[in-house]
Design goal:
By secondary structure, this protein is an alpha+beta fold. Helices cover 20% and strands 31% of the residues. It contains five helices and ten strands; from the N terminus they run αβαβββαβββαβββα. Strands 1, 2, 3, 4, 5, 6, 7, 8, 9 and 10 form a ten-stranded antiparallel β-sheet that branches. A hairpin with a 6-residue loop joins strand 8 and strand 9. The longest helix has 16 residues. The two termini are 18 Å apart.
Length: 226
């Protein structure tokens, strides 16, 4: 109810209300501990880069987010998901225990200066529980806002990330896929809804944060004015 009320009066999502949308591709990294997961997540990628807290761009006291939609089908992206699409949600929150401290730990001036975490684990192929994160491979020394820096990296072909995984309660991360963002998309962001449970049996979201999302995301979406 709290999230629904905030979304209604804000006339936008409670968290990550506005962002920039890009399209790219996800390519598996052959070999390694989670090669099968990289193959499962191969395809075209739509991503929304956004701030979590403020409706207008703010580069102080902010948490940054990346929402990914991975599509194997050949149809182009629009604001609506297709059957078979997979959504993955990441933020500059390495642990639920650090949620309140995250605005102080995030470099809100540059998306590519941060590591983004899925925060809660996934069950892979009904067996291992893994954590996921997105790590930028290169940072451009560009002046301007974080939006300008991100757009410049995409235009120059250097907005490249590794999707990494590790088993829960272990320390070593393994790169499973390489994600390259290629160009910006102009989409209706009010109609663009990411769903943490838009997955398949090969990658099942589990844990407390995912359980909370099951109620919070629909509440935010349905409470916003048409």
């Amino acid at each position: 109810p709290v999230v629904a009320a905030v979304s209604h009066f804000r006339r936008a999502r409670t968290f990550h209300p506005r962002g920039l949308v890009f399209e790219g591709r996800s390519e598996p990294i052959i070999g390694g501990a989670f090669a099968n997961l990289g193959a499962d997540l191969e395809g075209r990628v739509l991503a929304r880069f956004s701030g979590a807290l403020w409706k207008r761009p703010n580069e102080r006291f902010e948490v940054l987010d990346i929402g990914l939609r991975i599509r194997r089908a050949k149809r182009p992206f629009d604001s609506h998901a297709l059957r078979g699409d997979r959504d993955l949600l990441f933020a500059t929150v390495s642990s639920p225990l650090l949620l309140l401290a995250s605005p102080f730990l995030t470099n809100a001036h540059d998306f590519l200066s941060n590591t983004f975490f899925a925060t809660c684990p996934f069950e892979v192929h009904g067996d291992d529980r893994v954590e996921l994160r997105l790590v930028p491979l290169q940072r451009m020394e560009t002046e301007g806002t974080r939006a300008h820096k991100l757009q410049s990296a995409v235009e120059s072909g250097t907005c490249i990330w590794h999707l990494e995984a590790r088993k829960t309660l272990t320390r070593t991360w393994h790169a499973v896929s390489r994600i390259t963002f290629e160009h910006e998309l102009a989409l209706d962001q009010e109609a663009l809804h990411f769903d943490a449970f838009r997955t398949d049996p090969a990658l099942v979201p589990v844990g407390l944060v995912h359980a909370i999302r099951k109620a919070v995301y629909p509440a935010s979406q349905h409470a916003r004015p048409g």
